[in-house]
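Input.
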Amino acid sequence: MTASAQVAAAPERRRYDRSIVDGPLSRAVWNIAWPTMLTNIIGGLQGIVDHVMVGHFVGFRGNAAIGVSWQIFIVVIVFITSLFTGMAVMVSRFVGAGDEEKVDRTVYQAFLTAIGISLLIMAPVGYFASPWLLDFVNAAPLVKAEALPFLRIMFLFSSGMMVFFMLSGAPRSAGDARTPMALGITMTVLNIAFNVVLIRGLGPIPAFGTKGAAMGTCLAAGLVAVYSLYKLMTGGWVVSFPRGGSYGPDWSIIRSLFRYGLPTGIQGIAMNIGGVFMLSFVGSLAQSAAAQAAFAVSYSQLFSFVTWTSVGLMGAAAAVAGQNLGAGKPERAVAGVHMAARIGLVGAAFLGIFYFFLPRQLLAIFGMNEPVVVEIGTQLLRVLSVSGLFITVALSYTGGLQGTGDTKSPLYISVISQVLVPLSICFVIREVSTLQPIHIWVAILTGHATRCALSVLRFNQGKWRSIAVDIGR
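Output.
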């Protein structure tokens, strides 16, 4: 190699971790997975703090309000963050090929697009549509009274969260999972501090109750976003905003973001609309408020320990698969996804032991002491102890497909497994018999098992090997 070529290659070696495409594969997967898993777990603590404090200071209706609000909010937010899936596909490929300029341009255009959508569309539409959305999920009147201000605050002040989600994906796709971890821990600490004050009140600050949980989340995300934008503009991270050139929208890159990200957005919307319909089934039960509270805590919070770790592994599988495919090493991409799935199975089995044998103790942490709520929640947690095994494998292989650029297959798989299968089961049972909570929980389990089988089958077909990812200069 000539001296000039060595100089040109030096920035690539300093900026990107090449062990993902050259070093031991198990270590490469784990180095991306564990910070992401820890970030998701710690980040999820803010939701647990919300539920614990609201459960004690407002009651189980406050828990139901937060659970219902998040289910609705995520339907919208998942569409916007799908742009970051498109960004991650492109970033991992360009990092694998060592093209820094394309990495930075992609990150900046993803930021512009997401902020524009969140400010100009998400905030105004979400604010005025919130009452109708709560009626759609059959939120009980007392639950709706708590949920409406929470949901409106989240819609209006979501821009900071968008930036945080972007910074959760871009560095990880480039091989740096520790920066998102540091940001996530910081946001969680800030969120807990704000919630302690805003939910229960302190000194001259009144108790805002359920509204305080939304206020704390938005304040914490906003502060982290301001710092992140400063770092992206000044440099020092593995990804940054480009220096020089035009800072306006680059429509060719934005089209590519939608090309790879839009199927993931539609997938997320379909899954969460399915979740909203599932909430509607839960709301139609004879003891709807108790069932909604049990669902909010058992599925949305406690089971999230499985989904948080599995989403971390999904991100690791996507980064490893995308970078190795970009570097021309598809067999390492396959092995990396298999490794992520094995790690996920061990974690899900460990958590399943707690869900199955200690459900009442776990529910008590959230102030769930009403007998009917505990009975329904215990039943759900024991079903989820098995369901977690399927969903962690499904998400690992979903990451492999998305990381290589095949974002359409997970869309079709999710529509079948997370919408058609469970909702059809609930609908048929309701029409021919009396729908009970256990019927809904088994429908969820069946959907997760279906998603696992289809995801593994599609990835092993290997059609992702021929997908090309590029943008113009």
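Confidence is low (pLDDT under 50) at residues 1-13.
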